[in-house]
Structure formats: C-alpha cells, structure tokens
Amino acid sequence: MTDRSVSNRPSEDSSDSSWSRRGFLRSAAALAAVPVLVAADPAVAAEELPDFPAGVALYRSAYRNWVGEITADGLWACAPEDGEQAVAVVNWAWRHGWAVRARGSSHGWSPLTVTEGTASDAPVLLVDTASHFTHLALESGSSVRSGTGVTLEALLTYLEEHALGVTAAPAPGDLTLGGALAVDAHGTAVPAKGERRLPGHTYGSLSNLVLSLTAVVWDEDRGAYALRTFRRDEADCAALLTHLGRALVVEVVLRVGANTNLRCVSRVDIPAGELFAAPGDDGRTFASFLEEAGRVEAIWFAFTEFPWLKVWSVSPTRPLTSRRVTSPYNYPFSDNVPTLVADLAGRMVSDAAWYLAPVLGNAQYDAAALGLVTTLSADIWGPSKNTLLYLKPTTLRVTANGYAVLTTRDQVQRVVAEFTSYYRERLTAYAARGRFPVNGTVEIRVTGLDEPGDVAVDQARTPLLSALRPSEAHPEWDTAVWLDVLTLPGTPYAEMFLREIERFLLDTYDGGHALTRVEWSKGWAYTDEAVWSDEEVLGTVVPASFGESVWGQAAGTLDRLDPHRVFGNGFLDRLFR
Questions:
Q1: What pTM value is reported for the model?
Q2: Which of 44, 184, 199, 269 supports an S-S bond with 205, CB 3.0-4.6 Å?
C-alpha cells in the first residue's frame, strides 16, 4: 500500500483546477473562525421573539459544525450572562414552543446540537455558553468549579498554574468543557506497568471527574424550569454526566489531582504489519508500548505503511534527549496545512480527483516524518497540558467515524490487529475497483473505563450514557479501544465503506468477548448513502450496547428533567424515542 502510483486515473491537467491552495486554506480558516454574531434589530426581535427576557443579548448567527457538513444560517442566538438569565431564556422558549440548543465551539460531527436542514426561521434558539460561562475557581486543593463555556485549554492552563492537572484529555484545546462532558470526551491513557492511579485522576472520560453539576431542569413544584445542583451520588446526576445535548448544564465541579510532567516520543519507523500484528508476535507491537507507558496513540495515514506512533510516559524530570515545551500545540506541520497537502486536498475536492488519495496519504506521512525532525518535536517533555493538547482549529478538516470497543487489557492487541487487518483488506479491495473512500487517517487510542470510585465520593454514580460505562455483565472488561476513520467531506463511497467498518465492529464485538459502542460526537449508524441514518443502529443496537435498563433509566430521567423537550431536536427524538 506504499506504491504512490495509481492506475485508471483520469487524464487531467492540474493547471485547469479552479481550486487553489489559498482557496482551500481560506475555506478552512472560515470554518475555524468564531461564529459571527450579528446584533439583532430590536424591532425584528420584538416581532419574532415577543417578550424575550430583557437584558439577554440577542443575535443572528450561523451554525457550522467542525467540517461544515451540518450548517444553518440566520438562527437566533443569545448569550445569557449567568444561570438565572439562562433559566429565563429556557422558560421563554418553553412557553413559546422553541427549542434551546447549547453551543460551545461547535467542534463535533454528529447532529446532537443542530440537525442538517434546519431552516433560518425554525424555532431553534442557540445559547452561546462560551461568552459568559467561563469562570474558574478552586474549591479546594482537589476540586475546581468551572463554567461550562470554558475551553479545555483555559481549564488545563488554570489547573497547571495551581500545580494540578488531569491524566488525559482530548487533543483539541478549543473544546468547551460543557461540550466535552456532554459526549464523554476522552484522551488516551491506561496504567503503565507498575503505575498506580493518582488521587483525583481517572483513566476514563472527563465526565468521570464530575463531583457535582448545575443544570436548568423542570421544577414540578414551580411549574417552570429552574436551576438545580446535582451531586455525584444522586441518581439523576448519572443521566446528566453524559447527556448528549438533552440538557443545559451551566456549571460543574471537577475532581482534579496533582499535575504530572509527561514525555511524548513520536515514531514513524515501525511498519503497520509489526505495530498491529496479531497477538503473540514478538516485536514492537501496539500492546508492548501500552504495557511500557500506558499512553499510546497511532495515527495511520491512508495508503501508507508506517503509522505515526505517539507514546506518552510519566517523567518527573526531563530526559536528556527531550526538548522542554512550555506551551501546547507542538506539531505545527499538523496544525498548519502544508502546501503540498493543501494543494492535493483542494484538487481532490474541487476536481473530484479522489484517486489522489494514496498520494495525499503519503504526502501527509512525509510532512509528519519531516516535521518531527525539523521542529524538534519527536521527543518533547513538559507539564501534561503541553503534550496532551496538540490540535488547533487550523488543521485539515475531515469527517470522522468513531467507536469504543470494551474489552480486557490483555485483548487490546487482538482488537487492534483484527480491526486494522479488516480495514486494510477493504481499502485495498475498494482501490482495486478504482474507489478511494478514505483519504485521511485511522486513529487508535486506548483508555480505562469510567470507574465512579475515582472521584472518592461514597455512592458515586456511574455516567449512564458514557461509552466508557463498565458492563455489568462483564466486569472483567477494564479497557476501551477507540477506533476512528477520517476522510475528507464528500468523498465518494465513504458512507458505504464506513458502513462495512461499522458492521464489522458490531458483528465482531457484539458483547461476547468484547462490545462495540458508538462515539457520540462522531459518525455512526451508516447506510450506504448517509450517516446517522440506520434505523436499526439508532433504535436497537445503540440502546442494547448499554442495556435496556440503563438506556431506559437515562431516557426516563432526561425526559422527567425536560418533559417538554425544550432541549431536543429531531435527531435526539429519534434516538430517545
């Protein structure tokens, strides 16, 4: 798969392309920009939103998800300054038949916030959390109170200033905390050999760090929506820890622990055949690095043989060969699209030159391999934030599907080997027919599960809808393997290919020796033509992956806390029908 020549390609003069690198990067920059908020004309606002709460700023705003595949222009948006204003907005929406959709950074793929086709005159009100819900304060030496609009970079920077941190976090620093908690966002970490979990830390999702949260919920006694704080030991809290947008959480208190220094070593010299080998093979396998360091990520560019492997390890002092880093985002060749990569991606999109996928994959690999050397970033060391956060909004924007496979620690290599073997076989088969459905990467991470005991609260509840919720039927499962396939938006045959990948995962890891759950923020429920469209997956497979009792409890609680479904949309209604 390293052959850069491609047969059966159309005869085409690249000089005729109407898509320039500048145009491609301009488009990416537009997606990365903060949403434009156009101040509302008071007369128009009074007519279209009568009796809207005074003092709450109203705007017209566009909605764009991460890749611009879900868009809505001219929606009404507002920015409440505090929880009481948020309550007033929600009660107004309930009384006037509007839906409220919380918006942070819109860094997601799935239609959990806004559904495709939402018209500008739809009764949908965006509530921007990032404008005012950004406060941070230490509650004690082991907890922090935070607004849900704060970004992960701001949160981790604040913690670092107080010698605190987390074990793992998602790579993008622009995610808002509220958005991350809504979809059980995660990093990559399990205990290394001989490592013990530090107090205040978890190997699960960020949702598992919540001690309490404050949300706008229905108050039966008042006959209206009101603020209510839920402790981690309360049954209702379990549904709100990962609520998928079916709630409006305005503040959380998180358990945190002492910060650590991490070393991150990148390698691009291990063949996929060795790294992803079947269990029992000697050599530099994925599981061997996991055993040694506990924090591993593989990024495998399409149609290449050598993945980009990142290995983080706890390192109190700087190793002699490591470069000290004092800020995050230390891979500029990844965050800023290289010229050749931008040219290729732009040509593929504008000229339908999808046959260039192998060339693009090799160009991305070459950029990473060279960039690691020229930027001295192959071996970096510093406070955890500076190696955990590495993805900026200026990176190449691609679609992504996502799944978590729950299994035992000793079966990780088996899952990785089976998945990568099937992926390679199908990608090769498609290419032989002149089809190139993937032009991005495969990304593999491994985490622990959401063990409620990690927060040191008696009777702490487990997040009901976290993909990392432990299985009651298989308490021996202690690990999740996260599998993502990324490709440019609009790539032909992508949905068909990703449906095959999804079916393989669901059939292979069906709850016998392992279990597949979907990654909420990404792509899943594929048909041959579309994503989030397979009714069997939506209505049967996804609920079954959590169990009828757990799913029913979560759905019932969310409905009771929002009986009028103010915090809903058409997609969520299908999911929680």
A1: 0.93
A2: 184
